[in-house]
Amino acid sequence: MGLGRRGKRRANLWLVLCFLLGNYLYPPPAEAGLREQVSEHVLANGLKVILLENHKAPVVTFQIWYRVGSRNEQWGKTGLSHMLEHMMFKGTAKIGPEEFSRLVQENGGNENAFTSADFTAYFENLSGDRMQVSLDLESDRMHNLILREEDFRTERMVVMEERRMRTEDNPQSYLMEQLEATAFQLQPYHWPTVGWMEDIKNLTLADLKSYYRTYYNPGNAFLVVVGDFSKKELLGKIEKAFGSVPPGVKPEQEKDIDPPQHGERRIFLKRQAQLPYILMGYHVPNLRNGDSYVLEVIATILSGGRSSRFSREFIQGKQLVLDAEAENSLLSRDPGLFLISAEPLPGKSTAEVEKAIDEEIRRLQTEPVGERELQKAKNLLEASFVSSQDSLFFQAMLLAQYEIAEDWRSVEQYLPAIGKVTSQDILRVAKQYLVPDNRTVSILAPLPSQGKKSQGSAFSLESKTVR
Question: Where a domain ends, among 209, 242, 275?
């Protein structure tokens, strides 16, 4: 499956996977912090291994993350990361096409994959005594993938259909894509994870082979394993399975960053839709800058639950919108966007909603947040952060996402950083980042329907389940 780039899409992915992996929910050990329970090892070929033993149940989540996503692509070659994710299930000299999934399922497990701007990840969830299946399969396809022209042509059509269904036929998704393409002019966040349609059509098998050789190697990957295993025993098995894979050349990961924006950018999109929609994207730093944690608190104050400002003012009070959200891109590899989205109620205009949003932003810039409201936002963030670790799968996801953004050890910074946020921090950060000159506004103007329905939210997952 492909994974969208920003906060709400990430949250949706977590919710969907939580539903799919309900049998893997087990509380973590309470005697120590997450960082103290984790061990890190690096093989001679550069493969980093992150392990967390959790013996609450006899299951394991085995995840391999490659530091390659759409940010690693080039103009005219967008969509390669997502396309290669699909092709990773087409077999090796040892494993035939479509055999990968069958072998995992025959051993009582489930598997999938997801792609974002920053990474491509693959996972298997299995009984602890079946982990050799993951070791054998993942080490094999890291180095021995066979890419066939016939498979490539078929899968390219599948990906094109995904794009049609989830972006071309979804006005909110299309609006989000246009906002990012306008907000980011140098950064490769400019293009969508799934790729532009014309680029997908023109990709070749040679492009895919070159991309695989460049990015799929131990020096550009790491393993995260969480669950019921012995660290000493597992490390020996990992060394045996992956140690002989050639290290390859570690690719350059630094990318161009957009300079400061010096004026508001606006997009007006006319598409068939039932209701208008408004999206705002403000350029903000990621977790490498302390202001990102202040933005986490601001997003929660604005839209964290029924007592949030958006809910109280826009839904319950003024009855302006069906829904309104604020999202911060804390864990993006490069600086991202603070997003505000809203869907006006029938009879309400985007101009009315935009005015109301601007009023709430001005409040953040001029009125100190009360201590009770501030503490409530912090409590919500802490509860969400802690509860996400009630799952073996999400413990691994959490460690991996921090490893992609900076380093897995940074996970320990989250709660202390949130706890230190003050009302003065909120005033300062809102004045610095949430200003018109630093934002891109995109507005969907509905055209009359001609029998084609909207496909739902702008933040749909791009699934690879059709293989």
Answer: 242
Site of tokens 């049998």:
23
Greater confidence (111 vs 97) lies with: 111
For residues 4 and 374, which has the higher predicted lDDT (pLDDT)? 374
Whether 55 is covered by a domain: the verdict is yes
For the segment 141-178, what is each residue's pLDDT rounded down to a tens digit? 999 999 999 999 999 999 999 999 999 999 999 999 99
DSSP β-bridge partners for residue 327:
339
Report the 3 state secondary structure along the chain. Answer: CECCCCHHHHHHHHHHHHHHCHHHECCCCCCCCHHHHEEEEECCCCCEEEEEECCCCCEEEEEEEECCCHHHCCCCCCCHHHHHHHHCCCCECCCCCCHHHHHHHHCCCEEEEEECCCCEEEEEEEEHHHHHHHHHHHHHHHHCECCCHHHHHHHHHHHHHHHHHHHHCCHHHHHHHHHHHHHCCCCHHHCCCCCCHHHHHHCCHHHHHHHHHHHCCHHHEEEEEEECCCHHHHHHHHHHHHCCCCCCCCCCCCCCCCCCCCCCEEEEEEEECCCCEEEEEEEECCCCCCHHHHHHHHHHHHHCCCCCHHHHHHHHHCCCEEEEEEEECCCCCCCEEEEEEEEECCCCCHHHHHHHHHHHHHHHHHCCCCHHHHHHHHHHHHHHHHHHHHEHHHHHHHHHHHHHHCCHHHHHHHHHHHHCCCHHHHHHHHHHHCCHHHEEEEEEEEECCCCCCCCCCCCCCECCCCC
Per-residue confidence (pLDDT) for residue 460, from 0 to 100:
32
Instruction: Measure the CA angle with vertex 24, ends 21 and 25; round to 5°.
Output: 105
Do 69 and 206 sit in the same domain of this protein? yes
Q: Which residues contact 153 (CB under 8 A, 6 or more apart)?
A: none
pLDDT 10s digits, 419-450: 999 999 999 999 999 999 999 999 999 998 76
State how many domains the chain has. 2
Residue 371's CB is within 10 A of a number of other CB atoms, namely 10
**Residue 77 and residue 133 share a domain:** yes
Assess whether 11 and 106 both reside in one domain.
yes
Distance CA 407, CA 50 (A): 11
Q: Are 95 and 72 in contact (CB under 8 A)?
A: no
Q: Residue 360: give the domain boundaries.
A: 265-447
Q: Are residues 304 and 420 in the same domain?
A: yes
Task: Evaluate whether residue 452 is within a structural domain.
Answer: no
Quick one: three-class SS letters along 311-327? HHHHHHHCCCEEEEEEE
Quote the CA–CA distance of 70 and 159 in Å, as a whole number: 15
Q: Are residues 275 and 232 in the same domain?
A: no
